[in-house]
Amino acid sequence: MESDPSSETEENYNNLIESDFSYVNIDKLNSSKNSRENVTISLGTPTVNNGSLRNFVTYPISGSDSTGNIQTSRRYKDFKALRDILSRQWPGCYMPQIPPKQMTGNLGKDFIDKRKVLLEAFLMKIAKIPYIYHSEIVQQFVRGPQEFHKCVGHYGRLPFQKLAPLYKEVFSEFTSFVSNSESHKEMEDAQKHFSGCLAQLQVFEGWCKYTTDYFEYYQKEVQNLFIDLKSVNQVYAEEKNINLETRNLTTNPYSVLLGWVRTEILDLEGLNEAIQGRFMLEAIKLKIADRIDEERENLIKIQSGKKNFVQILLQKNKEQYIEKTSREITNLEEELKCVEKIVNIVTGTLLNGVIPKFKEGKQHMYEIVLKTFTSSSIKELEFLIAQNKQIERDILN
């Protein structure tokens, strides 16, 4: 009986995806009481729905956690809204990535199935990060209203005064880390390294796509060739029973590489985003420090009797403006302390937690992928050899 190579490939690929979570499991990076909770979550068969202007795809979500069962459905725009909010609320933290938006060809079965695998991987990775999974926005996503993307407007970026204690609680192991010039250089090196890796993988993806498509074409053409050869065989081998079995389609080994590289690209984009977020926070820290210096200079001028344009415009007396400027300096200093603490924690978490675990997990994943690829390639060659040996035996008999 002829096997279904597409379903076999998908099963192999899903098994690879499920094993690729070691770098997002943060049990050792925080002491969350929920860090060992068993969360199961998966996507069912996507459905193409008729819309008023254009058709759209919904992805059924099911699973369970300590709260109870999960049963809902989401569109791609819902996944994107969730990812955007999480990225804003957790600057400098690794956040699993989703596949990019595609304006055309996004209703084809092949595209939908591949997107489903990547969206499911996103949810499964989110479920492995307790402080993310148990956040209000994620719980709204898995249990909230049907049109999730329409009710997320009030989930904005958290002020640094609230973000600092939150980071201290979640990443308690790294609260004593102090960022310095050496760690800054390490972060620059990491950014350069992973950006280079991403560029290489993007080129490799093109070759994987080409080879995957070419192998599919090759398999079907060889199958057609043997079908026609059986007809020829009836004419030229009347006296010999030469067995010309039609070749079954086998698992495409190159699709394993293609699925892997697409997942790797998304994961590297997520890590690069976290590293860039760290540099963004450091830039904000420097900007706040500059503002403090400016306000202190203004305060000195006011105390010496000089009036600036703002003071004249607001018609405030000297005492009022001194009070206002002093209060502004105090607020900025408090904000600066919070941002400094966040930068320190994020730097420590990335350098001593996320990046080492990311490298370790990816190396293990790479070995699994190569074993799966070589195994599929060997099976294809073994089938070809067995088929040709059978023909040789039939001819010699």
Automatic annotation (TrEMBL):
InterPro entries: PX_dom, PX_dom_sf
Organism taxonomic ancestry: Eukaryota, Sar, Alveolata, Ciliophora, Postciliodesmatophora
Coiled-coil stretches: 315-342
GO MF annotation terms: phosphatidylinositol binding
Source superkingdom: Eukaryota
A GO term from the CC aspect: endosome
Protein name as it appears in the record: PX domain-containing protein
Keywords from the named record: Coiled coil
Occurrences of domain PX (ranges): 37-149
PANTHER family, alphabetized: FI18122P1 (PTHR10555:SF170), SORTING NEXIN (PTHR10555)
Gene3D superfamilies hit by this protein: Phox-like domain (3.30.1520.10)
Pfam family, one: PX
